[in-house]
Amino acid sequence: MSRPANDATSLHIDTSKPHPARMYDWFLGGKDNYPVDEAMGRQMLALEPGIPVMAKVNRAFMHRATRWLSSQGIRQFLDIGTGIPTEPNLHQVAQQSAPATRVVYCDNDPIVLAHAEALLNGSPEGAIDYVQADARDVDAILEHAGKTLDFSEPVALSMIALLHFVSDEDGAYELMSRLTGVLAPGSHVVISHLTADFHPEKAQKVDEMYKANTLTLAPRNRAQFSAFFDGLEIVEPGIVAAEAWHPELGEPVPGQEDIISAGYVAVGRKP
After folding, report:
1. 0.70 exceeded by the pTM?
2. Residue ranges of the alpha helices (H) in 72-109?
3. Residue 258's closest CA among 5, 52, 98?
4. Which residues constitute the signal peptide according to the record (predicted)?
C-alpha cells in the first residue's frame, strides 16, 4: 500500500471560486466544501431541485459498475477524477468482492489529496495508490499507476463525471484515445457524462453559471458521448441513463423515480 507522493500542506486550495468536486461533495451531503461552493450549488438547486438525487444516482452507478466488473474477473482499477472520498469508495466495493484487487486513484484537487489516507485504507491482500495529477497529464498518470497496476493485464478505467469538465479544445477525445490505447485486451472503460439532451434549457443556464465563474463545462449529446467508446464494445444494456444500468446490482436511490437523469453512462470492453 503506497502513500501519496505530494504533501497536501504544500498545495493551495482556491476558495475564491466554486470547484466542481467540492460542489459535488455538497450535493452528496459532504462537509469538504466552502461557502462559494454552496452558493453556486444553491443557484443550481433553484434551477433544478433534483440535482442532489442525480449526484447520488451517478455515484450509485459507479458502485454497480464496479460490482459488475468484479464479477467479470477484473482485479485492477484506474479511477481518474476520483473526487472527494464518499464511502463506500471504489476500492471498498471492489475489494469486498475480491480482496486482492489493486486500485489507483487520480485527481488534481488538493482537497482529495488531503483525504488520500482514507482512499488508501484498503484490504491487506490488495494494493491501493493515489496520484496527484491532472487528467490530461496521461504520461504522469500512467508512469505512477504502472507501479501498482500491470497494464499487460486487463484494467478497468473509471471516468465518473469527469469528461464533461474537459472540452474538445482541451483534448477530451485524445485523452481517452491515449488511455484506452495502453489498455490490454479484456480491459473495460466506465464513463458517466453530463448531457443537455434531457434538459436543454436548464443545461444552457447551468452552462452560463459555469462560464460566469470561469469554469469549463462541456455537456455532450448521445453521439458525442458514444465517440468516447470508439474501438470498444459497449456492453449491455448499452448507453443509458445512470439508473437504468443494471439496477439489480444495487439498491435504488431514494427519490430517483421523481427525476430525469441529466447524463449518459456506459461500460465498454476492449476486444
Report:
1. yes
2. 90-97
3. 52
4. none
